[in-house]
């Protein structure tokens, strides 16, 4: 049975050739690129600058340096992805990436430079070359967001923006293709409350779903709204079991909830060490790259050492005297992290920084082909909301900003091939066979707690079965009164259910998916797990699919 969120009837309408949902690097790049196909309306949940992009510290990875190459970048990406990357998508990412970064620079993004005026390139975990371009030391995301928003502001009359708007559900035409979205504007003005945005194509760039766990580096708006909307509409989502937990998130105590301060991998790239409470560098000997191993390896190393010692966290040593660190270096290279540390009473030039893994990035999302097309005609997805297959089982550090740029531009190119001509907008009333769903707002906190306990860094059949049972129990806590917190809780519950189902099915350890009861990888799991809602029962159906992205059957621009 097709599902949609319970919501009031739309009280206003808007029209555009393309509607883009999301305002991070993927969303704004898609909006700028979609101008080739006509008018664009961009919908964002908060303000333009409030997405996940501005929190990106490390940088953007691309083969820009002397001696580096797209082939080397591809090898590092495939190694990090642990055998389940889509190689076609990765090849596109690394070959089109350098030009995409240069176009970003042409838009006005200013990256840090060396003394000779070339782009300063750093290194992060999993990279065997210096290829991480950064801005403002550790404020890369903030600078990229600034440049893209400035470019957007110069498109007067071409891109309309509706902010403080939560996307609810997809509008579909008689043939089952995307025809717009319903949204709820949080505020008062010419448009407020629930409305319908009619469009010939829809681009989802709604970011991640970090709020499905207790602790995350994601902002509070990251509740997986676009991915949940696509799933309810009948689209396939994939790779949800591959959730990347960043190994070095500042530990603020066992009771800390929500967005936590990130200590960028670039700090380790500059020579910082991980140590336990006795000062032992426990990553040495666990992997040839020690602290600069891929993120899943470092996160597992930290969790194992915590279990061995009984400590609630490990420590990051970036004090003066370690590698090139000094007070001046901290101020120049990592001013954002320095400010965050000082805010919490830690002077990183003198003190060890307490760190522990926390949810950071969803490698999965709405499954797409190499042009960003989903299994629903004229519904596209890019950025963290999409599953292009680029990241496989574990995203290589700083590939996410690049993925947002490259595949958003490809969506624009596909849209430019031509959109269908429509005479009238589709009706907004729900057709027969559609089930309204809505859960109590209090479900959100319980989803976060049970997911952290049973489907976090460490997983097993027992913990996942327990989590699935709890999610099933929470599904009975329905609500009648639609509002923001209830919609977010419903979205997170749906995605948590799909994540747990995929994690329980994948009986192996691979990349960021760590099964204590299946510690090894197995060739039979060199597949992608895709989820959809059964159109008759409304229940989740999960199936194995090939890794490579063939063009979506029946999907036309």
Essential attributes:
557 residues; alpha/beta; 7-stranded mixed β-sheet; 5-stranded mixed β-sheet; 23 strands; disordered C terminus
Q: Could you characterize what this model shows?
A:
- The chain has 557 residues and is α/β, with parallel strands linked by helices.
- It is 30% helix and 20% strand.
- The strands form 6 sheets. Strands 2, 3, 7, 8, 9, 10 and 19 form a 7-stranded mixed sheet that branches. Strands 20-18-12-22-23 form a 5-stranded mixed sheet. Strands 13-17-16-15 form a 4-stranded antiparallel sheet, with helices on one face.
- This is L-aspartate oxidase.
CA radius of gyration is 22 Å
- Rounded to the nearest angstrom, the distance between the terminal CA atoms is 26 Å
Number of helices: 13
Shape: globular
Main sheet, how many strands, which sense, barrel?
7 strands, mixed
Q: What assembly state would you assign to the polypeptide chains in this entry?
A: single chain
Mean pLDDT value: 91
What's the β-strand tally? Answer: 23
Q: What structural class do you assign from the helix and strand content?
A: alpha/beta
* Parts with pLDDT < 50 across at least 5 consecutive residues: 553-557
Amount of beta strand? 15-25%
Helix content: 25-40%
InterPro entries: FAD-dep_OxRdtase_2_FAD-bd, FAD/NAD-bd_sf, Fum_R/Succ_DH_flav-like_C_sf, Fum_Rdtase/Succ_DH_flav-like_C, NadB, Succ_DH/fumarate_Rdtase_cat_sf
Pathway: Cofactor biosynthesis; NAD(+) biosynthesis; iminoaspartate from L-aspartate (oxidase route): step 1/1
Organism: Catenulispora yoronensis
Domain Fumarate reductase/succinate dehydrogenase flavoprotein-like C-terminal: 445-549
């Amino acid at each position: 049975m097709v599902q949609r969120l319970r919501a009031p009837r739309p009280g206003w309408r808007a029209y555009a050739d393309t509607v883009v949902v999301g305002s991070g690097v993927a969303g704004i790049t898609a909006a700028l690129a979609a101008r080739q196909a006509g008018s664009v309306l961009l919908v964002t949940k908060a303000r333009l600058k409030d997405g996940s992009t501005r929190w990106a510290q490390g940088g953007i990875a691309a083969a820009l340096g002397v001696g580096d190459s797209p082939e080397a970048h591809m090898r590092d990406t495939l190694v990090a992805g642990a055998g389940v990357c889509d190689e076609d998508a990765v090849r596109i990412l690394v070959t089109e990436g350098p030009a995409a970064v240069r176009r970003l620079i042409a838009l006005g993004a200013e990256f840090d430079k060396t003394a000779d005026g070339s782009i300063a390139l750093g290194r992060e975990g999993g990279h065997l070359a210096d290829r991480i371009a950064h801005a403002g030391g550790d404020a890369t995301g903030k600078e990229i967001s600034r440049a893209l928003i400035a470019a957007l502001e110069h498109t007067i009359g071409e891109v309309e923006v509706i902010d403080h708007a939560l996307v609810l559900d997809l509008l579909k035409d008689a043939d089952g293709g995307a025809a717009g979205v319903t949204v709820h504007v949080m505020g008062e003005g010419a448009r407020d409350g629930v409305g319908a945005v009619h469009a010939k194509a829809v681009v989802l760039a709604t970011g991640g779903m970090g709020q499905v766990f207790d602790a995350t580096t994601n902002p509070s708006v990251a509740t997986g709204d676009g991915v949940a909307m696509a799933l309810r509409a009948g689209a396939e989502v994939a790779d949800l079991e591959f959730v990347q937990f960043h190994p070095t998130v500042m530990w603020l105590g066992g009771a800390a909830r929500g967005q936590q301060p990130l200590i960028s991998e670039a700090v380790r790239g500059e020579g910082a060490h991980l140590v336990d409470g006795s000062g032992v560098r426990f990553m040495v000997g666990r992997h040839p790259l020690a602290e600069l191993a891929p993120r899943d390896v470092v996160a597992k190393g930290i969790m194992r050492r915590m279990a061995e010692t009984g400590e609630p966290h490990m420590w990051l040593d970036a004090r003066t005297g370690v590698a090139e660190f000094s007070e001046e270096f901290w101020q120049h290279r990592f001013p954002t992290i320095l400010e965050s540390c000082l805010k919490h009473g830690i002077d990183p030039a003198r003190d060890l920084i307490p760190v522990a893994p926390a949810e950071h990035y969803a490698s999965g999302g709405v499954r797409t082909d190499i042009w960003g097309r989903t299994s629903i005609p004229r519904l596209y997805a890019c950025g963290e909301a999409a599953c292009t297959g680029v990241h496989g089982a574990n995203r290589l550090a700083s590939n996410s900003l690049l993925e947002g740029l490259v595949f958003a531009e490809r969506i624009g190119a596909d849209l430019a091939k031509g959109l269908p001509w429509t005479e009238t907008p589709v009706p907004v009333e729900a057709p027969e066979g559609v089930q309204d769903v809505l859960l109590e707002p209090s479900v959100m906190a319980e989803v976060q707690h049970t997911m952290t306990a049973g489907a976090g860094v460490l997983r097993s059949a027992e913990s996942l079965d327990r989590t699935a049972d709890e999610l099933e129990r929470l599904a009975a806590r329905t609500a009648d009164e639609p509002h923001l917190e209830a919609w977010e809780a419903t979205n997170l519950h749906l995605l948590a259910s799909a994540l747990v189902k995929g994690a329980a099915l994948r009986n192996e350890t691979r990349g960021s998916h760590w099964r204590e009861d299946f510690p090894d990888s197995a060739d039979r799991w060199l597949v992608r797990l895709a989820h959809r809602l059964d159109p008759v029962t409304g229940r989740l159906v999960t199936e194995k699919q090939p890794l490579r992205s063939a063009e979506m059957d029946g999907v036309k621009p």
